[in-house]
């Protein structure tokens, strides 16, 4: 049965419309959350479990049976089991023949195994169509509905029909599938959740280096150099100098938001625009937004510091003023005698 749901109608499946049955292997955290979400979106769910009788906490509308019984109920099987426990699936090779297996697994480390979990699953159970999906969605987000920032589901697989069907499921859950190609992309998709803010790292390091550099530059120019003959300058270190560093960093980062010029020069130099950019330029182009946001942050700090400085001057002025009046007073009093 081919479903043809589109982006236009996520989460609004009419219950009169008979939805297909989807099987979920494993009744852990993720299996339960995904099952509940799919039930809410109108699917019938059959769970496969080692201990079908013991599974509490499961949505009451779902059926729970042994792995081999559950597998027969649907031709889409979502494997919500950790990779280390995949071995038992070899016993089910016959039942699983021709079915779509959706691998959702993640690892604890980048490149933990020589091959991706999805490719491993495909080798383990030959004759199935393995599709990688859902690994960047967390059980917590599925349950709490906090999916605003992460609606994207990366998909890859060798069988385009199987992939298409999984993409339809993804869409009907109100998520956005992103086709990453064949199963060879699974490794990249599995590493993705392990990279903490991947596009922020370079802009972050760059701004740190800029700040440190200009800070020391200003310290040398304005504190160490005049130290020999000038008065107290401690106020400069935490306030004035950072306030000079921030706009410099902000403007430099802002200038770096436009690598297009470099790209254009490179294209002119290469004489073609159909050649891939080198990795560094590619990465630079991709993190423009983050560079711009950090620049904005620095500009904001500059505004804040600029507002603080006059307060400091005011404090200094009032204390100076008090001293001067007292001196005047004393000199008046003394001159009287
Ligand atoms: N939790 C999350 O937020 C996310 C998890 N994932 C992936 O989903 C998969 C499941 O994760 P999660 O639900 O958190 O894990 P859990 O440990 O909560 O659940 C794993 C389930 O696997 C089943 N299982 C089958 N064989 C074994 C075995 N030999 N030993 C232990 N369990 C077995 C069990 O179900 P039963 O007892 O019914 O047989 C168990 O409940 C993992 O691959 C994970 O990387 C992906 C994205 C997010
Ligand atoms: Cu300014």
UniProtKB/TrEMBL annotation:
Annotated GO CC locations: endosome membrane; nucleoplasm; plasma membrane
* GO molecular function terms noted in the UniProt entry: cupric reductase (NADH) activity; electron transfer activity; FAD binding; ferric-chelate reductase (NADPH) activity; heme binding; metal ion binding
Indicate yes or no for the key word Transcription regulation: no
Q: Where in the numbering of this chain does the Pyrroline-5-carboxylate reductase catalytic N-terminal domain appear?
A: 21-107
Key word Secreted present:
no
Q: Where in the cell is it found?
A: Endosome membrane
Which Pfam families does this entry report, sorted A to Z?
A: F420_oxidored (PF03807)
Q: Which GO terms describe its biological process?
A: copper ion import; fat cell differentiation; iron import into cell; protein homotrimerization
Q: Which UniProt keywords apply?
A: Copper, Endosome, FAD, Flavoprotein, Ion transport, Iron, Iron transport, Membrane, Metal-binding, Oxidoreductase, Transmembrane, Transmembrane helix, Transport
Names of the cofactor(s) = FAD
According to its record, how does it sit in the membrane? Multi-pass membrane protein
Q: Which reaction does it catalyse?
A: 2 Fe(2+) + NADP(+) + H(+) = 2 Fe(3+) + NADPH; 2 Cu(+) + NADP(+) + H(+) = 2 Cu(2+) + NADPH
Ranges that cross the membrane: 202-224, 245-270, 290-315
Q: Which PANTHER family match?
A: DUDULIN-RELATED, METALLOREDUCTASE STEAP4
Kindly provide the name given to this protein in its UniProt entry.
STEAP4 metalloreductase
Q: Give the gene that encodes this protein.
A: STEAP4
């Amino acid at each position: 049965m081919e479903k043809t749901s589109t982006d236009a109608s996520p989460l609004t499946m009419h219950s009169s419309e008979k939805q297909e049955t989807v099987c979920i292997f494993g009744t852990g955290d993720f299996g339960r959350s995904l099952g509940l979400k799919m039930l809410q979106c109108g699917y019938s769910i059959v769970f496969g479990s080692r201990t079908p009788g013991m599974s509490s906490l499961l949505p009451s509308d779902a059926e729970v049976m042994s792995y081999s019984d559950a597998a027969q109920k649907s031709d889409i099987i979502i494997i919500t089991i950790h990779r280390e426990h995949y071995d038992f699936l070899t016993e089910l090779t016959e039942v699983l023949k021709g079915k779509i297996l959706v691998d959702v697994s993640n690892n604890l480390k980048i490149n933990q195994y020589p091959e991706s979990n999805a490719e491993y699953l495909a080798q383990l159970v030959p004759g199935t169509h393995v599709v990688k999906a859902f690994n960047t969605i967390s059980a917590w987000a599925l349950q709490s509905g906090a999916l605003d920032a992460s609606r994207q589901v990366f998909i890859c697989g060798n069988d385009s029909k199987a992939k298409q069907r999984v993409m339809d499921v993804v869409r009907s859950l109100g998520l956005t599938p992103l086709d990453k190609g064949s199963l060879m992309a699974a490794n990249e998709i599995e590493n993705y959740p392990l990279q903490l803010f991947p596009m922020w790292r370079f802009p972050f390091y760059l701004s740190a280096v800029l700040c440190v550099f200009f800070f020391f530059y200003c310290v040398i120019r304005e504190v160490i150099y005049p130290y020999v003959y000038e008065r107290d300058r401690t106020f400069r270190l935490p306030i004035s100098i950072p306030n000079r560093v921030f706009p410099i960093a902000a403007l430099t980062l802002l200038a770096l938001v436009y690598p297009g010029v470099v790209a254009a020069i490179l294209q002119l130099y290469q004489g073609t625009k159909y050649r891939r950019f080198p990795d560094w330029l590619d990465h630079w182009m991709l993190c423009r937004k983050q560079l711009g946001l950090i620049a904005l942050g620095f500009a904001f700090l500059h505004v804040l510091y600029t507002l603080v400085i006059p307060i400091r001057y005011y404090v200094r002025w009032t204390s100076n003023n008090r001293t001067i009046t007292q001196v005047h007073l004393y000199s008046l009093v003394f001159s009287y005698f």
